């Protein structure tokens, strides 16, 4: 499988490519595109939250703690510096000392978190969280799209590294990343599907708005001019 550095670089590249397309059609302000670029880059690391290596896991959770803290601080108004510090400490402590041990105990690397069902769960959770934070519907849908691209980039890269081109063989790990769901760990898979269902229920009242926004984004990107218009230049 690809290492941490390779995954991070790949997610940065795909997130940057998507960001240039968004900028080209002027869908949202530049500052929001920068935020989405960061989200997309971090999303490429999400499947490795089940990593068995303590260094990778500590790095990932430290990064996500900072990202969540930044989003929280920017989304709510605080009256004092003490409130900001207290919020940062609570978020960092909750993620690293409550959420992280759960991942360490219940997840297995290349297990249920390396699956399409896990990607669906993360994407839907991102969409619901963005709407709960009062993001505009366009920004919320784009956040989900960036997370989708980042996660899929990770899984596809893992599958590519499962093919040994030089020795012309397929490694035993081939197919373990892009599986629909993990049949080996039924409890974890049921947990995923339960929360996918809850996410679908939570966004029930916004279905039409989400769908129309997605179509608008798609149609806008489709109409994007890819090649320069040479007719405006005189030679």
How is this structure best summarized?
The protein is an all-alpha fold and 235 residues long. The protein has helices at residues 4-25, 30-43, 54-75, 81-106, 116-132, 137-160, 186-202, 207-222, and strands at residues 163-164, 169-170. It has a two-stranded antiparallel sheet.
**Helix/strand/pairing category:** mainly alpha
Low-confidence stretches: none
Number of helices: 8
CA-based shape: globular
Counting structural domains, the number is 1
Helix content: 55-70%
Major β-sheet strand ordering: 1-2
Q: Quick one: biggest sheet?
A: 2 strands, antiparallel
Distance between the termini: 51 Å
Note the quaternary state here.
single chain
- Strand percentage lies at under 5%
- The total of beta strands comes to 2
Rg computed from alpha carbons, rounded to a whole number of angstroms: 20 Å
Query: What series of H and E elements makes up the topology?
Result: HHHHHHEEHH
Mean pLDDT: 81
Helix-strand blueprint:
Layout: H1 4-25, H2 30-43, H3 54-75, H4 81-106, H5 116-132, H6 137-160, E1 163-164, E2 169-170, H7 186-202, H8 207-222
Helix pairs in contact: 1-2, 1-6, 2-6, 3-4, 5-6, 5-7, 6-8
Would you kindly provide a written description of the structure presented here, covering whatever features stand out?
67% of the residues lie in helices and 2% in strands. It is mostly helical and 235 residues long. It has one domain (4-52, 108-225). Strand 1 and strand 2 (169-170) form a beta hairpin. Helix 2 packs parallel to helix 6 and helix 3 (54-75) packs antiparallel against helix 4. The chain is globular and about 60 Å long. InterPro entries: YdjM-like.
């Amino acid at each position: 499988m690809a290492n941490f550095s390779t995954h991070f670089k790949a997610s940065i590249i795909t997130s940057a490519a998507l960001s240039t397309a968004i900028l080209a059609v002027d869908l949202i302000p530049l500052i929001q595109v920068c935020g989405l670029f960061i989200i997309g880059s971090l999303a490429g690391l999400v499947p490795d939250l089940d990593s068995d290596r303590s260094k990778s896991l500590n790095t990932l959770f430290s990064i996500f703690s900072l990202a969540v803290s930044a989003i929280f601080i920017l989304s709510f108004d605080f009256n004092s510096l003490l409130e900001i510090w207290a919020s940062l400490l609570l978020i960092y402590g909750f993620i690293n000392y409550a959420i992280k041990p759960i991942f360490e105990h219940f997840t297995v690397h290349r297990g249920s978190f390396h699956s399409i069902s896990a990607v669906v769960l993360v994407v839907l959770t991102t969409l619901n969280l963005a709407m709960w934070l009062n993001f505009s519907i366009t920004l919320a849908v784009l956040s989900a799209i960036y997370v989708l691209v980042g996660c899929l980039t990770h899984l596809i890269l893992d599958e590519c590294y499962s093919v040994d081109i030089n020795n012309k063989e397929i490694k035993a790990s081939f197919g373990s990343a892009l599986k629909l769901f993990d049949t080996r760990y039924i409890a974890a898979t049921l947990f995923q599907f339960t929360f996918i269902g809850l996410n679908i229920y939570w966004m029930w009242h916004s279905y039409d708005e989400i769908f129309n926004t997605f179509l608008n984004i798609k149609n806008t990107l489709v109409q994007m001019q890819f090649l320069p218009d040479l007719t405006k230049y005189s030679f």
